[in-house]
Specification:
Layout: H1 5-14, H2 21-28, H3 32-45, H4 54-66, H5 74-98, H6 100-104, H7 114-135, H8 141-152, H9 156-181, H10 185-188, H11 191-202, H12 204-234
Helix pairs in contact: 1-11, 2-3, 3-4, 3-5, 3-8, 4-9, 4-11, 5-8, 5-9, 7-8, 7-9
Length: about 240
Amino acid sequence: MTALSPLLLAPLLLGIKWLDPQYLLDQFGTYALWGAAAVIFAECGLLVGFFLPGDSLLFTVGLLVSQDKISIPLWICCLVLFVAAVLGNACGYAIGAKAGPRIFQRENSRLFQQKYVDKTSEFFDTYGNRAIVLARFVPIVRTFITVMAGVAGMSFRRFMAYSALGGLVWATGVTVLGYYLGQIDLVRNNIEAMLLAIVLISVVPVGVEVLRARAAEASTRRHADVTKQRADLKRPAPTEQVRD
């Protein structure tokens, strides 16, 4: 995950305007909330939207609501963005279920390979529920994991349940965070630094999950080694045949 960080930070560091959430919302004008919802939908469900600034956009919406620059109640903003995130995931799942298998069947696909299908299926068997929730906080990953869930044949009902949970925590949580932190002068006067911090913090949940998975794997290996050693000790020693 950490290898993605330079790519995620590049838009802010290089000043690419159309990836700047403030610039995007300014361009949407009085339709800022609906424009933000369209961006969230695209990032969560359309493969072409993987580069869009979801986390920072949600945070900025909350900040602008706190400053009355978006004259829509916070709860309505959270509801609209939550629905956009969930519907986006449903769209991504449908793409994976219908178009995904044909893409994966291409041996030399530039974006996908057949081994990704096998690994994704195994991944969802083991971490499926948590993966859908955690992926919400990881830019780029949250776009592709919905398609992969459809390809892997994850239960749609289970997928949507955890997608809704993740969408609630992510879309609502980050927007509310922006709303309350936006009332603090230090945050309001250093918005670019805060957006960078949001991007960095967003990978923390997955980092924790990776460490937990590695610790569990190491514990399993140790247990297997101890079991094997005990079995070796209980195994009777071979007897030598007596020669005439």
